[in-house]
Amino acid sequence: MFCTGIENSNPTIDHGRTRVDEMESCQFYARWQEDLALVRDLGINFLRYGPPIHRTLLGPGRHDWDFADATLAEIRRLRIVPIIDLCHFGVPDWLGNFQNPDFPARFEAYALAFARRYPWIQLYTPVNEMFICATFSARYGWWNEQETSDRAYVTAIKHIVKANVLAMQAILTVRPDAIFIQSESSEYFHAENPAAIGPAEHLNSLRFLPLDLNYGRRVDSEVYDFLLDNGMSREEYRFFLQHRLKQHCIMGNDYYVTNEHRVCADGMVRPAGEVFGYDEITRQYFDRYRLPVMHTETNHNEGPSGQEAVNWLWKEWANVLRVRNNGVPIVGFTWYSLTDQVDWDTALRQRNNRVNPLGLYDLDRNIRNVGRAYRQLIQDWRNVLPTQSLCLTVPVVMPGEGGDVHAEAQRDKAREIVRSETPQPSTQAS
Q1: Residue range of the domain that includes 104
Q2: What digits encode the pLDDT tens for the residues 27-63?
Q3: Of the candidates 9, 46, 151, 215, which lies 20 to 30 Å from 335 by C-alpha distance?
Q4: What is the CATH number of the domain that holds 64?
Q5: DSSP calls for 178-210
């Protein structure tokens, strides 16, 4: 799957007073028809996209589907396969932020309503980059709740991951053959000196926390103590062990030049640049979860020569091939996003309206060098093994084929699997 994405981050800053809406900043609301046509012009058949939750989910059971209806109808007409991104770093104002204990149930209801309205959609990323969302909101103090404590961080993690799990369960009741592609940031923390080994090991354990909980994997003992010391109850922890949906998932992982960090003895971190790279870090995550993999995000500034992003694309693609040649089942690659972005040079912490040249197209919708290079890469590699396999075809059912006999048989089989996974009520007398 060669893929790109529509940047739809929408966190709040200024303690909830200001919404940073990248769809607005990047002019997608005004130019969505043009943008979707550009996806097809590049030869891309898969698109990470989701309607803005803060404009769609207006209140409990209240939705404005107009924009989603229009854009998804055009995506379907163009025969683009959407990977639906339901929550991308922000929640509606009426829900507040990720400290709100109501968020998981409200998000579950939203996911169910979405799946019922668009039953032809099979691929989902319910909550994007759970690690980054919790870290930036409740550890660094940059977004949403803007908290900086371990307790706030654990609260955000448990609410975000529970929301993701409940959303997956809800979608499966409508689309039992749904496939969930977790777009998660793949990180590594390097100890700067011997005194930093302990802090680095702690951070390297925490980098797995959202996926451990999401996939029902028992966390490391140190992390378990950390969770209980900071507000997660044993019952809350057991929820994740008892709701294991790993078998419906692809481990989507994101890698940027900013994903590796140097750790000081006092626990402070600073950028390390690319040290291990995508191949090595992906191997670490694959060894832990043993799931098919998709490279769900990367990009790079175009750079002063105009070739820096092209060189990064080549390097990431070489890493994808290396991952595949080493036996990891990798099913897709993504340059994120379709167009340039705005204010990501300050991680959306400030409204500077500064354009970041990261896209396949600039904000005037002129193709960048990396856009031309990606189009050529797709033409060269689309039908060449081992980058694709008939045994690893996603989605199982294409959007326009949902009514045929094969698709119905696939769904019936998936429905039986889902039914067998659902815990049955106890018949033992009380």
Answers
A1: 2-182+206-258+284-421
A2: 999 999 999 999 999 999 999 999 999 999 999 999 9
A3: 215
A4: 3.20.20.80
A5: -EEEEEEE--EEEESSGGGHHHHHHHHHHTTHH
